[in-house]
Design brief:
Number of domains: 2
Distance between the termini: 58 Å
Keywords: Apoplast, Cell wall, Cytoplasm, Disulfide bond, Manganese, Metal-binding, Oxidoreductase, Secreted, Signal
Strand content: 25-35%
GO molecular function: manganese ion binding; oxalate oxidase activity
Strand order of the largest sheet: 1-2-9-4-7
CATH superfamily of the largest domain: Jelly Rolls
Number of helices: 4
Shape: globular
CATH architecture of the largest domain: Sandwich
CATH class of the largest domain: Mainly Beta
Radius of gyration: 21 Å
Main location: cytoplasm
Order of helices and strands: HEEEEEEEEEEHHH
Structural class: alpha+beta
InterPro entries: Cupin_1, Germin, Germin_Mn-BS, RmlC-like_jellyroll, RmlC_Cupin_sf
CATH topology of the largest domain: Jelly Rolls
Helix content: 10-25%
Family: Belongs to the germin family.
Length: 224
Amino acid sequence: MGCSKTLVAGLLAMLFLAPTILATDPDPLQDFCVADLDGKAISVNGHTCKPMSEAGDDFLFSSKLAKAGNTSTPNGSAVTELDVAEWPGTNTLGVSMNRVDFAPGGTNPPHIHPRATEIGIVMKGELLVGILSSLDSGNKLYSRVVRAGETFLIPRGLMHFQFNVGKTEASMVVSFNSQNPGIVFVPLTLFGSNPPIPTPVLTKALRVEAGVVELLKSKFAAGF
């Protein structure tokens, strides 16, 4: 009986603590831990730290997002990432940012950030922002045209997209509560994985003919 009570108590503790444990990146135990991106040591979360004597004095600053990206892409958009790989100073701090630029009619295709909640502000133009809830919440599409100066919020792990509905270029800046939020582009994942998802799986799942699947695979054979 005592063992059962202990087990139940342990399970309840895990249940209540799990949201806190999994909500964001682990808390840092020092002021700075500038990522040693070339380090060989194995690390579970984040990168090993450079000695502060080698880190320089500019690891808290970056000008990378000041320049617009080249939107001459198949999607008509350009993502400038500022995660730990691009800004080593964010290592262990649980934050990162992106800038996304859009040509007229450009899109940031449906995608998911598996490790972070996202909050963004439209800097220029007007973007249709769409967020899709999980099946538990009715598989509902929440969408709105967001204009310059307005903000939006995307819960962790939910599929979402942005589309430039204006006649001029648009841009947005987003931030994440993870130094490495990750990204899963839905079209690329389904039709451009390596090795490919078997065509019979996709024909069944998407309820289309094999020729349609093969056509879509050919569109993403070279990636994004």
